[in-house]
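Key idea: predict the complex, not the pieces.
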Amino acid sequence: MMRGLMRNSTNISTNPMQDSTTLSPKICSDSENGQWTTIIRPRSPWFDVNLAELWQYRDLIRLFVRRDFVAQYKQTILGPLWFFIQPLLTALVFTVVFGRIAKIPTDGVPDFLFYLSGTVCWQYFSTSLVQNADTFVANAGVFGKVYFPRLAVPVSIVISGVFKFLLQFGLFLIFLLYFLVKGSSVGLSVWAIALPLLVFQMALLGVGWGILISSLTTRYQDLRHVVPFGVQLWMYATPVVYPLSMAPERLRDVFALNPMTAVVEGFRLGFLGASALNGKYVAISWVMTLIILFIGLVVFSRVEKTFMDTV
Amino acid sequence: MSVVISIEDLWKQYRLGVLGYRSLHKDLQSWWARLHSKEDPNLPVDRTELGGNGPTDKIWAIRDVSLEVKDGEVLGIIGRNGSGKSTLLKIISRVTAPTRGEARIRGRVASMLEVGTGFHPELTGRENVFLNGAILGMTVRETKKKFDQIVDFSGVERFIDTPVKRYSSGMYVRLAFAVAAHLDAEILLVDEVLAVGDAAFQKKCLGKMGQVASGGRTILYVSHNMPSVVNLCSRAIVLEKGQVEFTHENPRQATQYYEEHVIGDIRNSVPIPLKDRVDRQGIGDLRIVGFASLTPDGEEISTLTLGQPVEFRIYYEVREGHNPRNVAAAIAISSRSGAFLTYLSNYGCSDGFPSVARNGFIACKVDKFRLSPGSFVANLALHEGQTLQDWIQGAVEIRVNEGDFFGTGRLFPPSHHGLVYLDQEWSWGTESGAGHL
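Result:
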């Protein structure tokens, strides 16, 4: 009677296997690929961003966004109101503390508007970053059981962030109109058209930093606690509660290295008409954004295949 | 038939110990120490040098596994906890990457490694069906098409628009399984998902799995439920310590191998002679010292044959100074997985032998052994009247070979052995008359 295959007699203690980190990536040929839909290997390419796959999973991304909104809506009494109350209160506090008490100048623009503009931008960026930084750990449950492109989560976070931003931006516009009607010295400039670009840049920045930190936190969990705190400090390093024009000329270049500087100032230039922004700073800002995004994607690609083993 | 999954020389390594709680601070400390050729302050105490031959904290969960699965095959994967079954599925479903080796897949893979993945308590059942479906890989359109079927299968129609946090755990699980059961992919990975829900629902699940299995999809089925593996699978493999220990076209053979060799550890242990066994219960005035199976001619055999007469002998000895009275013996035969099958005894149906010799045997004759081919375990016991004198559990192994049960030279195929063979006589007839086979 056929007994079937039995275990081979390899003695594991003489296993000459090296540590897996010394492996080099395998290259596959086209003819091999033709037959198979998926090939699973130990190492992924160092830059593994599969946009086609993300597009395939667009329904999932949409549902994640919806889930974020609905969950927030249903869990709090204030629900949707919270989207407005938060920036309003923050801007109010800033106006009182920085505007009245500390008497920081605001480029000739009404205090409240100044702080509201900064807050609205910063909120979007910081939530994007903080939520993304937690991607792997927060979703370890789902990631550990099913495969779907891991980038779907950061993308969905950013998209739901955009929606929230639009709501708050609407609020900002209302106040802007109010101040315009009252005849203040604010003016929409032609740069207001650049808004979509700014939003896009903030999204890229949030995703880039977020996934970078997220990949690192799979190994070093204490980074998770550093992030919210780090973001707060970063806010003070960005001209959110003060205008860039307050900084001396030489220092401004240093500020420009912070990609969010150009974003916030750009927003103000577009809608409030006053800013110390120039083309150089915008260019630096974009370069920094793209570098960070690139590094983030590379690290993320390396980590995503095996993070489940260490998270 | 074409191959849809091809696994070649797959290895997967895990690091043991507390993971993910490394701190940047500690890593920097260790790095700094290494840089300055000082002792690493963060090494565990019993290691004196880095990378020495001390106990390793790495474990190979999968070792050199090579496997091919053909289109439409239902492959059962069985093995102990920790043998690498779940890891293998995780690699195929791309949840984690292998350390070495390669896996090639043709077709969409849908995995049922856990039900209810991604269910959010605040969302309604309806919303969760779509979300869960999307996570598992279905588009919204696909889910919409199957929505009614899914809800119908789950039986939670009335509650489909209430938030899932209000569901009972049974409802939750039924809905979750219903979504997973309607996945439309060429390859399905199923991991002990059916071990949830009440008996009625489990039966429904098994039915659905059977339906899916016969629908031509390729399925990898990991389970501890041996009967379901035998029923659903067309082939089975046994994993042990990350290696494929055994593979066979007949899943029953694989489950038997598993029960005998993996659980029973026959491979590893040298059986202790009965007289030396100390794990026994009872007063001990009478002691079991041996067991044998004999043919009617008195020849000792190690393996029984289905349908053949056999005599069982329990050898015993009586303690010095004790008089044996009303002695009865019992043999309780169970399957390898613990199902109690049959009882042989003169205890209970009589008073026992009024007296027996001081050293000898008690014999039991069975004229036609009816247990199907396979391996069984027997407990042995000796009573004196109502008193238990000696009881050894897992005393002997009884192996049964195929034999000519019906006297026709023909037997049912192995998949239809069941556990017992019964004598049977078949005929046909009409109301007004009868015929004979």
